[in-house]
Amino acid sequence: MGKDFFIAILTLLLPFISFGENTSADKPNIIFILADDMGYGDVSILGKELSKIKTPNIDGLATQGVVFTDAHSSSSVCTPTRYSILTGRYNWRSTLKQGVIYGYSKALIQPGRQTIASMLKK
Question: Dihedral of CA 8/11/17/18: which sign?
């Protein structure tokens, strides 16, 4: 119980531990949730009584921020969708012309290409 219990507790508490994060109001605080096969009503704040699963944490984020409810993807699979989100480019302009890449595949985002992270950093 000793070591495994400690690791389990640390894993549960880690998201709540502050490591001197910058809480400056002049910097954006963006949380982007991308979920496969999630319908509009699956989050309880959007589905109201139709939602089969209560999502109080996501509901709290939604009530404290901005919720975009009219979003579209240029692909039905994960890799091109993530590429578009990260780069802001049409996904099929990458070297991938169909399907998805796997864990050890060559990265689709070329070195030096601007991403949402590099844009926010500027």
Answer: positive
